[in-house]
Amino acid sequence: MGTTDTSTARSERGRSAFTDVMTFEPPADSSPTMTGGLIDFVFAEVWTRTVLSRRDRRFITLSCVADSDVEQPLVDHVYAALNSGDISITEMRETVLHFAVYAGWPKASRFNIIVDMQWERIHRERDLPTPAPEPLLPLVTPSDPEERLVQGTATFKDVNCLPFAPDRDNPYQGAGILNFVFGEMWVRPGLSMRARRLITVACVGFQDAPIPILSHVYAALKSRDISFEEMDELALQFGAYSGLPKAAHLSQVISEQKARVLDEWRAEAGTNSEEQP
Amino acid sequence: MGTTDTSTARSERGRSAFTDVMTFEPPADSSPTMTGGLIDFVFAEVWTRTVLSRRDRRFITLSCVADSDVEQPLVDHVYAALNSGDISITEMRETVLHFAVYAGWPKASRFNIIVDMQWERIHRERDLPTPAPEPLLPLVTPSDPEERLVQGTATFKDVNCLPFAPDRDNPYQGAGILNFVFGEMWVRPGLSMRARRLITVACVGFQDAPIPILSHVYAALKSRDISFEEMDELALQFGAYSGLPKAAHLSQVISEQKARVLDEWRAEAGTNSEEQP
Amino acid sequence: MGTTDTSTARSERGRSAFTDVMTFEPPADSSPTMTGGLIDFVFAEVWTRTVLSRRDRRFITLSCVADSDVEQPLVDHVYAALNSGDISITEMRETVLHFAVYAGWPKASRFNIIVDMQWERIHRERDLPTPAPEPLLPLVTPSDPEERLVQGTATFKDVNCLPFAPDRDNPYQGAGILNFVFGEMWVRPGLSMRARRLITVACVGFQDAPIPILSHVYAALKSRDISFEEMDELALQFGAYSGLPKAAHLSQVISEQKARVLDEWRAEAGTNSEEQP
């Protein structure tokens, strides 16, 4: 059974989806990239899919576009996310910090500047004053280094669904992972665990690091923060923005981790249930 | 006016195009990425387009896939390019060197290993001995450093369609650009100027370097090695493999450089001809 | 034993470290989240660490930032490296060429332009004329192709701590690796072997090329140019600027190569010493 779709109907659907997602009308650009690629595929056929919400697709897209180093798409997607109300300014700022860890501070610095500019722009367009940013302090995490490491270790195990954590006596593992990434960043309020997982899986996807890809896909599924179907959709959204080769690899890893998680759930349940929660 | 296309017909077209391009049948993978993304879009709707040949699309694709750091797609595309006969082993090996310069030696190292393995595999499959590689020496370029710099300077101006070249007294410009990149690599026989331009534009595209993107798009068009329509198709092929954000930027630069090149041709012709050669 | 470290004290330490490293004061806290992360983690807790000098951390950071394609951080870090006197202009220019090979010529082209601009800016700020660049010729390497290949082969083995080198009869291996990368670039005076190794390990890290990562980490340790502790610090510095997932992979490889190098030293020494030289 197939649905019939004239190329005109598809272009119209794409242009309509573009306006809905981006909060402004698509440009009148007739190049193959914009028509065949962006309108007819990315907007007509990816953004319109079900299972993963428009808001969730934004977290994935923002990460990929911020990684791509191209300014205008990032300006547009940040504007659209805030202007639509899908993502709050608090969530957006926490996204930038999370991205800084998973994609590097330099790219995050550009992302950060763009968020401030688009936030101001939106208020100017609405003839409203731009609210002051939330103060950084007080933090919700301990100051004492030993307490931070203890908490970071516990958070690492929680987030990664693992019974162990890395040894602290190593700069990258101790000062980096336990003290800051899991000792501070992952537990900051203002961005949900689910949103953090969407951003993280997209980032490890374009960062091409094999074990992090595997472990973050596993943890996102095992924790039930992202369902199997949602994860499949994530890979396609990611593919549109970071290219099909990386998406094909991510898709392969997802397939393997789904099987692993199912096996583990069955073993834990002591049954042979095929039910995917 | 539009053509009608059932989703089944499109999937069949995609699977057929996959087999034609890759020289083997598509896997039975029902994930959204593979069906919605790869088969229904990349193969059904990009590889099947006219204007740019299948062979030319391979040079662009190989560059993007080699940059993406994912092993299996690169293995598959190298195999397909050689197995189909679209690209000779000599051309493929020169492609690896050209890619090394424009995308970095470490990524090229993996590309190089894969080329050797797939070349051997193809011969094994055909029950033939693997031919010996061509000897490196003698080179076609001068040995004397001063002569190399003079030739490199002339080649730089030719390839870039510029009346000037960088000053030699700088390691990157002198030892690198003039002595090696243009003094040796661009003039090596075994890979045409046209193929080199396809690879270069793809590489500067994913390398996100603003001035090289501009200058290599300009030169590819100004030299008439790549036509306006072929360049538009390049951007879409590139977008499928490196992601739509980078392709949107490349598409924008192409639009600007087309206008610039047209203006220059008109000024040079002293007429107001609209003909695009 | 833990020292008390209020988050205010940490911010102060971070702001002080920023000024010390960057040679200018940190920006005002307009985005506390991001600025908090950058100041409180990257500057307060990474740059202030011992074992790896501020100068050495700059070689790693410059490579990662130049790869990230974001202009302002690269401008700032180039300015800071030259303005502080930690890196000389000769070293900086050789760094650009080394980076060109290991991260791609297009990215290096932007890095090159920025170096020239910041060098001029520093002299303008000091009311001094900008010195003329050093002449490229004469080179210290042979001109004859056969001699270059012989020397390149010897240098390849030395630098990589390997008893073999790639076969010359292949464009990438012969014209590229043996004739240019090791036949010219690695042996250029003006940048020490140690600095070259820091840059190379950072580059192979973000280039995601598995075998080069392994081989360059191995060689840096085996040669004793970089100690085990210094290499661990490199991974953390790298992680802040290129992202956690890539740093996780690099960290894993470092762990494996340390074990391998220790085994080799013990076998060579014929003893069971635990001392790391």
TrEMBL record, chains A, B, C:
SUPFAM superfamilies: AhpD-like. Pfam families: CMD. This is Carboxymuconolactone decarboxylase family protein. It comes from Nocardia fusca. PANTHER family: 4-CARBOXYMUCONOLACTONE DECARBOXYLASE FAMILY PROTEIN, CARBOXYMUCONOLACTONE DECARBOXYLASE-LIKE DOMAIN-CONTAINING PROTEIN. Residues 176-254 form the Carboxymuconolactone decarboxylase-like domain.
